[in-house]
Amino acid sequence: MKKVDFEYDIAKHESFFYEQLSERQKRLFAALRAMEIGYYGVKEVSHRFDIHIHTVRRGKKELQLEIVPPVNKIRQKGGGRKKTLPYRQFA
Predict the structure, then answer these.
(1) Is 81 a domain residue?
(2) Is the dihedral of CA 58, 62, 67, 68 positive or negative?
(3) Does residue 71 belong to any structural domain of this protein?
(4) Helical residues (DSSP H) of 38-86, grouped into ranges
(5) What share of the chain is helix, strand, coil (3-state, %, to 5)?
(6) Which domain range does residue 61 map to?
(7) Residues 43, 53: contact at Cβ < 8 Å?
(8) What CA–CA distance (Å, rounded) separates 18 from 29?
(9) Would you state the torsion angle of the CA atoms of residues 36, 38, 44, 46, taken in this order, to the nearest 10 degrees?
(10) 79 located within any domain
């Protein structure tokens, strides 16, 4: 049987994989790719995944400090939009 060479579109599969991740996982994955590239890695990865440079830098910082998030939490406590008070009619 003849062996056939397969060609994979790694960028396409990488983008698909990236979209399946949570916010924190995306940040860490992007940071890991930037560290792998080296010089100008942050800029290149931020353009490839269409995220802000600071997001990649934050991910690099989390990887270097080995920050472990709380279990079953994606966002920090207190994050998100603040609740509004119910509307009250004045007499």
Answers:
(1) no
(2) positive
(3) no
(4) 41-49, 53-65
(5) 50, 0, 50
(6) 13-65
(7) yes
(8) 8
(9) 70
(10) no
Whole-model pTM: value is 0.68
Please give the pLDDT value at position 89: 64
pLDDT digits (tens, 9 = 90+) for 34-83: 999 988 989 999 998 899 999 999 999 988 888 777 667 666 667 677 77
State residue 82's pLDDT score. Answer: 77
CA-nearest of 12, 56, 67, 51 to 30 is 56
Q: Which of 66, 5, 7, 2 is nearest to 32 (CA)?
A: 66
Q: Tokens 């062996």, residue?
A: 3
Q: What is the DSSP letter of 91?
A: -
